[in-house]
Write a structure and sequence with these properties.
The complex is a heterodimer of chains A (370) and B (233). Chain A has 370 residues and is of the alpha+beta class. In chain A, 24% of the residues lie in helices and 35% in strands. The chains are: A alpha+beta (370), B mainly alpha (233).
Chain lengths: 370, 233
């Protein structure tokens, strides 16, 4: 766990980036925003790569920057690691030499190089030239290298965004596994909310150089649904226990509440084991989401339908947005967000506290990798 | 080759070698500073460094001759420090050569540092490498080819110097009489045979040196191009 105090302004090309937050970084904290919103700048400022910070940054009571006292700790003395969007490996060194570069400069090395090579699946590539590696392999080397410098805080700046889907599938579970094994606090920047939903419990949303939201990942995603100019497609963010990995028909079952289950195509959760990292025997939790446009409302139970998912809930909110209505239906503790046309709302005459049926196809229950 | 010419060759090689070493030591930080500079004064500094490329060597030589003379401050300071006159000495032609060959060392290095960019340097900084460490473990290995080019060009250009040396060094055997001056002497004395020997030796050795530099930079498999490849992934 790390305590990060951020109170600074940074003059940027088009706008000023301003933040004033005391942040407890436990596990992985996500930073979400569109490109150009200033999220990478935030990481660069924490790492010490932005020199014109005006204000204060401190990590666990160690002052990294205090412009009022002309304090500026250089990046090499901060013990803050940074994994860039592109691997930025040293092209004149082999994989192993790239890793030992970090080990040699670590003041009190405790990790075993061999373990990290194993966990990042690089054992067979150690002697390779880094220029001969694929993008995904290069990024694994970059991750291993950053870990081996044994930072107090690891920053990840869009670590997956330059990779193809297969490489993302490999790298994401590795990041999660390393975080759990080594307990390194991480700040994870991405412009993909699906990706952040998989990796972090807490999220900061940045827009136009300001912190727009900060809080629990699911709550923040739901709060973004309310925004008048939504940053993201309106959706329901879920974390549900897996009841069965395959019901024999290619569908997995997630527990919604005591009586109701949610079906999801098996191919949407092949990585659930790696993601959740639960010891054998414990219930595994799958994080998934359903777009508000892909849920629909029935007044009667839709028994005779090919649509496999249907469950009941109570309408707790109705919000008219132009020609659409965002309906919040609460099922137990879990709110679901449904987008219907104003026309349907009029036809069904939906009211608060009304009991309704929600339905969606199994394929509408999505995970980051699907 | 006769003794006098052999002595001129030795003086030339000593001057060129010393000049190259000094140029690498002072040219590297200048090139680094210029590569990282964003201020608009950069163009002025670049122009100052490039001046010897366009200026007649006699212009530079003339001003240096005045500066090195005991009547002016640089010459005075030198005389106080060493007890010897600066003008018409081996030291004078080395200082002159350093200024004259500066762009040949600074420009290739500046270009290499600019091409290398900040990406890999930032990556090494966040891994705990300080500035000196970064230079020797990352920057230098990745720009080695440019250092070889810079050193070779600086050396070759110094060997080929004439105008400045004539102005500030004169023609003192064993001190300031270099090959280009010896050649000039032979021509003036109508000793064309000895002039030919020096001329053809300089021509061939310069050609070989330049061809080697171009060969070194030819198959764009230098460390720099691989650095770019990694970045563009």
């Amino acid at each position: 766990m790390s305590q990060l105090d951020l109170a600074f302004t940074l003059h940027y090309a088009n706008f000023d980036f301003t933040i004033n937050e005391k942040l407890t970084v436990q596990g992985i904290v996500g930073i979400y925003g569109h490109s150009g919103s200033g999220k990478s700048t935030l990481l660069r400022a924490i790492a010490g790569l932005e020199k014109t910070v005006s204000g204060k940054i401190s990590l666990d009571d160690k002052i990294l920057v205090n412009s009022h006292h002309n304090t500026f700790i250089k990046p090499e003395n901060r013990q803050v690691g940074l994994v860039f969007q592109h691997a930025r490996l040293f092209p004149h060194l082999t994989v192993l030499d790239n890793l030992t570069f970090a080990v040699k400069r670590c003041k009190t090395p405790q990790l075993k190089l061999k373990d990290i090579l194993k966990w990042t699946q690089l054992e067979n590539l150690a002697e390779q030239e880094v220029t001969k590696l694929s993008g995904g392999q290069q990024q694994r080397v970059a991750l291993a290298r950053a870990i081996l410098a044994e930072p107090k805080l690891l920053l990840l700046d869009e670590p997956l965004s330059a990779l193809d889907r297969a490489a993302k599938n490999t790298l994401l579970p590795i990041i999660l596994k390393l975080q759990k094994q080594l307990n390194i606090p991480m700040l994870y920047v991405s412009h993909s909310l699906d990706e952040l939903q998989q990796v972090c419990d807490k999220i900061i949303v940045i827009e136009q150089g300001r912190v727009l939201k900060l809080g629990d990942i699911h709550q923040v995603i739901h709060q973004l649904n309310d925004a008048h100019s939504p940053l993201i497609p309106q959706q329901t963010s879920l974390a549900l226990p897996i009841k069965s990995h395959d019901n024999g028909h290619g569908l997995a079952e997630l527990i919604l509440d005591d009586q109701q289950v949610l079906f999801i195509p098996c191919e949407n959760l092949p990585y659930a084991n790696e993601y959740t990292q639960q010891p054998v025997g414990q219930v595994q939790i799958l994080r998934c989401f359903i777009l508000a446009n892909e849920l629909s409302i029935c007044l009667t139970e839709p028994k005779n339908s090919s649509i496999v998912n249907h469950f009941t809930g109570i309408i707790t909110q109705l919000e008219l947005q132009k020609n659409k209505v965002l309906v919040t239906v609460t099922c137990g503790e879990q709110p679901f967000f449904v987008n219907i046309s104003a026309f349907s709302q009029q036809k069904l005459a939906l009211q608060l506290q009304q009991l309704v049926y929600l339905q969606c196809k199994a394929s509408a229950v999505r995970t980051f990798i699907h | 080759m006769l003794n006098a010419d052999l002595q001129a060759l030795i003086t030339t090689l000593e001057m060129a070698a010393l000049t190259t070493v000094i140029l690498l030591i002072i040219g590297t930080p200048i090139a680094w500073y210029l590569a990282k500079m964003t201020s608009r004064f950069k163009v002025i500094l670049e122009a100052v460094v490039a001046l010897p490329l366009v200026l007649p060597p006699t212009v530079l030589g003339f001003y240096l001759l005045i500066a090195f003379s005991p009547e002016y401050l640089p010459g005075q300071l030198w005389q106080q420090a060493t007890g010897q006159q600066l003008a018409f000495s081996f030291s004078a032609i080395v200082i002159g050569s350093v200024l004259y060959s500066l762009p040949f060392v600074v420009q290739p290095l500046q270009k290499a540092f600019e091409q290398l960019g900040d990406h890999i340097i930032e990556a090494s900084a966040v891994l705990g490498a300080g500035p000196i460490d970064r230079f020797f473990s990352v920057v230098f290995p990745l720009t080695k080819a440019s250092f070889i080019t810079a050193a070779s060009l600086g050396f070759a250009h110094t060997v080929g110097e004439f105008g400045i040396i004539l102005m500030i060094g004169g023609n003192i055997p064993g001190e300031t009489r270099v090959l280009s001056i010896a050649l000039f002497d032979h021509v003036e004395a109508f000793d064309y045979q000895r002039a030919h020997i020096i001329a053809i030796s300089l021509l061939i050795s310069s050609l070989v040196l330049l061809a080697s530099i171009y060969l070194l930079n030819l198959p764009k498999k230098t460390s720099l191009s691989t650095a770019k490849k990694v970045r563009s992934h």
